[in-house]
Amino acid sequence: MILNKLYKNIACTAFAAITMASCTSNFEDLNTNPNLPTKPSPAQTFTFTQLAIAGVGHETSRLNSLTTGMLGMHYVGAWGDSRVWLTGNGPIWVGEYWNKSYVKIVGNLEVAISDVKKTDNSATKLAMLDVWKVYNAHRITDIYGHIPYFDAGKGFAAAEAGEKLTDDILKPKYDSQQEIYDDMIAKLDNAVETLSKPGNTFGDADLVYGGDHEQWVKLANSLRLRLATRIGNSAKVQESLSKPLIETNADIAMIPYTGEGDVWGLASNGDAFSFIWGGAFPSQAALNTMNQHDMDMTNDDPRLPVYFTNTAEDEEGVVTEEPWYAPQLKSGEDVGALNGMFKGNTANVGGADSPELVFTAAEAFFLRAEHASDAAMKLMYYKNGVNASLEYYGLGSDVETDYPAFWAAILADFNADAEAAILKQKWVALIGNGPEAYAEVRRNADIFFGKVFIPGTDYVDVSDDINKSFDEFYQWKIDYPISEASTNLKNMQAAQAMPQDFWWTK
After folding, report:
1. Are 420 and 413 in contact (CB under 8 A)?
2. Is 436 exposed, middle or buried (0-12, 13-18, 19+ CB in 10 A)?
3. Host domain of residue 166
4. Please, are residues 361 and 390 in contact by the beta-carbon 8 Å criterion?
5. pLDDT tens digit string along 105-114?
6. What pTM, to 2 d.p., does this model score?
7. 199-205 average pLDDT score
8. Measuring CA to CA, how many Å separate 424 from each of 36, 113, 156, 242?
9. Which Pfam families match (predicted)?
10. CATH number of residue 228's parent domain
């Protein structure tokens, strides 16, 4: 609780200074509180950017459930064009994520980097800031494609330094995703090396690991393995596999729930409900892949009741339970009426007090399983990934012993098609992490749509044009928000004219 109060105080001080800097005129001399800094320290700014990853309002919940959570096939919505997993139409409200990421995270990271360079010029602090910059940037480019990167946020740092603000700074150009990925991996290369040595860190201002060098090395290297896997950089994959990775649930990188915060206000410090939105329901794909399509629950995935609920109570207190193997969703049916019985279980995932998971041990194990050349090692990492996911939710630590029927079922999946089984279990472990689920589905669309997800059973194409190919039906990227057209139109149009050769098209 003491740390929670400390985090809150740090965040509030940072936010007050960050957001009010532009609102002051000649009041400084008349009304200055000597106990309240007029400018946040780099540590306070870093804390704020960490909390902002978890959401500074409701953009994170909408990103996870109404956008990437649906495109990643975890959820389906009942609200018109938010039913993207069925219709392929663009999601609503997604522009909030872009806008708040650039305003609250990108800009403040640039300010923190500039301030560290002007003060102690700590290599370790700069490496931690770079890792956080990469984490935020890779989520944005994975969702949108080409984005402002190298010049993004420079205006914030220039304004803080009192420098002239030019159009080049205020309206940053868009950079190609290939250039962005090359730079992100280079930053992680440097971070792994730098953070392997002692140095001055942010200490308790770091909400993720409390400034622990070894843990930050694991996060930086695990992120490098994720990104190298995504773009097929085998050399960086092998380099990452030779260095420390996130190994246990104690190593998980997450933004903790601090116990306070306004989930709707712009000043929220991250305690917004993580991703469950009232109009989002578990998709048919999620329900189908987690049960064995029979009435025997012993071989179903034990995480089903952790992720979702299958009961409803009427006004008279009568509780109704729907079998997990729910009726199939058909074209033209109302999603809310059919899947309304199933909702996200906010007691465990996506509630207001849920932490924001940045990188889990389960994901690290599944990545290792993907790259293991030895069959026995591949199976070991596969099992370890399932075990880590179960353990995180308090469901035991040995799937073979605790859930023998379920283990027999997913072992049969592995023996039949190891690659598909690994991706399937990784996708299940990612429920609640919409951006990563969306990336995983696109990275291996040929496996997911056909082997993991069965057309007509797990998803239905209800587009108007029955002759549409899947490439035309599925939404491979999110369109730039409307706000960019009004504030950075020329550069946005230049990005739209660039070759659309993103990692998921190669």
Report:
1. yes
2. buried
3. 2-24+37-278+351-505
4. no
5. 999 999 999 9
6. 0.89
7. 94
8. 51, 39, 42, 25
9. SusD-like_2 (PF12771)
10. 1.25.40.390
